[in-house]
Write a structure and sequence with these properties.
heterodimer; A: 82 residues; mainly alpha; elongated; B: 253 residues; two-stranded antiparallel ribbon; 7 helices; 2 strands; 77% helix; 2% strand; globular
Chain lengths: 82, 253
């Protein structure tokens, strides 16, 4: 079975990114709800928490893409294409 | 027919209500399953690794050797490099334990303990501990902390990037637990929902229940085969992801 330009390990990490994105937002939301109850600031901490989770999820995806790009370039250099 | 109650009865954990000297004991269906699997694995493997003279015994020993070779050459060394040699026993235990617990859930009358988030969380915490330990072992405390800052990060971004990287690592471990739990839980819920369809259709008219029984049992059989595949796949994925994350901590760029 062809896996395209990615290895099996990379495929597995890519499928994990989606779940990481969801978990980051859920954790951010849960933290926001807890802080809202504690400080009685509803719903601002929840909004901040979800936005923070979203930012973290996006950061993970961008970081992973950068890493893949760097690995791809290193492999191309080793193959003499650069 | 109360679907919610039936689902809860078949899927959720149940405390047996035992106590010793007035202290309630945490004996639940899932803990008993875990203990049973552990005892079977410890006794079975202890017996299997003894020198055997019979052909069947020798075949069993060869199978175990093949299993350890698969974990070493297929999962640990490609992801962790030569540094992974010391961690092979953990990965062998992890794969076999998760697989056995998943498969135990397929036996009628037993429950899959991995459909309980507390148990998958405990497994993920063990894996998280291994990831942190491997980082500390090969880089020291200062080096491990530095590995959370990607190379080329401007100094003024470090206060922002460092917490993000630490939380990312915690989320990776959370995802390990949630992935295993969700897959095992959803499989069992899907199997039960298919079964309930027969009774629900039967409540509208008995002929509908009888007529739907055969096709739904076919679907049930298909889903059970899928569950078997998922049991192997999730044990593999959990072990492989632990090896990938530990390898990423050891070989930082």
């Amino acid at each position: 079975m062809s896996l395209g330009p990615f290895s099996r390990q990379e495929h597995l990490v890519i499928t994990t990114l989606g779940l990481e994105f969801a978990v980051a937002e859920l954790l951010g939301g849960a933290l926001g709800i807890w802080l809202d109850k504690k400080w009685e600031t509803s719903p601002w901490m929840l909004v901040l928490g979800v936005l923070g989770g979203f930012a973290l999820g996006m950061y993970r995806i961008i970081r992973f893409a950068q890493e893949m790009d760097r690995q791809g370039k290193t492999a191309e250099k080793e193959n003499g294409r650069y | 027919m109360d679907v919610t109650e039936s689902l809860a009865h078949h899927i959720l954990d149940h405390n047996w209500g035992l106590s010793w000297g007035g202290i309630p004991l945490p004996i639940t269906t899932h803990t008993v399953t875990l203990l049973a699997v552990s005892v079977v694995l410890i006794l079975g493997l202890s017996w299997a690794v003894r020198p055997h003279t019979s052909r069947a015994g020798q075949l069993l020993t060869t199978l175990l050797e093949e299993y350890v070779t698969f974990i070493r050459d297929g999962l640990v060394l490609p992801n962790m490099g030569q540094e992974g040699h010391g961690f092979i026993p953990y990965f062998c235990t992890l794969f076999l334990f998760i697989l056995s617990v998943n498969l135990a859930g397929m036996i009628p009358g037993m429950k899959s303990a991995n459909a309980n988030i507390s148990i998958t969380a405990a497994l993920a915490i063990c894996s998280g501990g291994l990831i942190v330990y491997s980082g500390l072992k090969y880089h020291g405390i200062a080096g491990f902390i530095r590995s959370f800052i990607p190379s080329g990060t401007p100094w003024w971004l470090i206060p922002l990037i460092f917490p993000l990287e630490v939380v990312s690592t915690i989320i990776k471990v959370c995802v390990l637990a949630i992935r295993l739990f969700a897959n095992m839980f959803s499989g069992h819920v899907a199997l039960l929902c298919l079964l309930f369809m027969i009774f629900m259709l039967g409540q509208t008219h008995w002929a509908a229940g009888v007529g739907s029984a055969l096709p739904i049992m076919g679907l049930e059989l298909f889903m059970t085969c899928l569950e078997l595949l998922v049991a192997f796949l999730q044990a593999y994925v959990f072990t492989l992801l632990t090896a990938i994350f530990a390898g990423a901590v050891i070989h930082t760029h």
